[in-house]
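Hi all, posting the design record for the shared folder.

TITLE: backbone redesign
STEP: 1 of 1
STRUCTURE INPUT:
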């Protein structure tokens, strides 16, 4: 666990170590099967995998990166069907399209396991079943690492989390835990997931009211509270930017007074949160059909 946080070279060596990742995954699977998600060794395994998934897409060996991106290029060049509004619409769609990874292997080995749906489901299972804060935080953090970035891998993992593995209810529960770093990591994961346009309506329906409910009335707390608050505002920005329906949902959850208060609270510590709230307000105002509702 300590070695896995030693920087890019250490991560590279550990990812390449034959059988290491497979053994960690095997151990965690056994712990879950034996209903022991809270043991210390499981925590250590998950924290190690969390560290090994950091900047994974950037640090992937060339061969993996090429196979992922070649597949992406082929998909976009083969798809010549114009959308309803001709070529412009198709380009926009292509830009937002989630490109799946090359066919998932039924028996992933080594580094392939790190983004495989089996491990994604394991993380979600630990988030739901473990009561150890470090295990919860590391599981959320690993998913946060895997969904960071804009390549095909983060989008594929995001779709697995939200649609294939139904992970939002477990993540939603973590928004209400008292442990500040667990909450912060859960919000950061949702922020990553919310960048994926095809998942925004699912995410808004499941967690938007919860995100509003955990916004503080004022932000005078610690750094971690300010960072979490900023992250919530940016997540809400992603969810409402192009959806009047989601903006209305935020309004009916009484989010507006809180966001206005946060935007005006620009002490040194809370300037990041204040800026994020202002960006969100500016975006909400762009829904002209909601102006009269806002004014009320």
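Okay, here is what came back for every position:
SEQUENCE:
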């Amino acid at each position: 666990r300590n070695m896995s946080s030693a920087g890019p070279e250490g991560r590279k060596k550990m990812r390449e170590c034959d059988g290491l990742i497979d053994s960690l995954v095997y151990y965690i699977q056994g712990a879950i099967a034996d209903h022991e998600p809270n043991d210390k060794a499981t925590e250590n395994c998950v924290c190690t995998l969390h560290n090994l998934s950091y900047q994974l897409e950037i640090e992937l060996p060339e061969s993996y990166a090429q196979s992922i991106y070649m597949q992406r290029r082929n998909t976009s060049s083969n798809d010549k069907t114009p959308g309803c509004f001709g070529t412009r619409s198709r380009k926009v769609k292509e830009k937002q399209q989630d490109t799946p990874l090359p066919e998932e292997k039924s028996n992933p080995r080594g580094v392939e396991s790190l983004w495989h749906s089996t491990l994604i489901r394991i993380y979600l299972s630990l988030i739901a079943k473990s009561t150890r804060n470090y295990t919860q935080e590391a599981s959320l953090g690993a998913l946060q690492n895997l969904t960071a970035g804009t390549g095909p891998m983060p989008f594929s993992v995001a779709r697995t989390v939200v649609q294939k593995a139904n992970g939002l209810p477990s993540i939603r529960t973590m928004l209400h835990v008292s442990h500040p770093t667990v909450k912060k990591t859960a919000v950061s994961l949702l922020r990553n997931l919310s960048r994926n346009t095809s998942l925004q309506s699912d995410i808004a329906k499941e967690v938007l009211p919860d995100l509003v409910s955990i916004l503080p009335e004022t932000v005078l707390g610690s750094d971690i509270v300010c960072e979490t608050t900023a992250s919530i505002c940016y997540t809400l920005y992603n969810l409402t930017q192009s959806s009047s329906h989601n903006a209305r949902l935020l309004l009916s959850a009484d989010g507006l007074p809180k966001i206005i208060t946060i935007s005006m609270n620009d002490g040194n510590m809370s300037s990041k949160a204040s800026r994020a709230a202002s960006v969100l307000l500016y975006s909400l105002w762009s829904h002209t059909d909601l102006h009269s509702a806002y004014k009320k």
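COMMENT: The chain has a mean pLDDT of 86.
Let me know if anyone wants the other runs.
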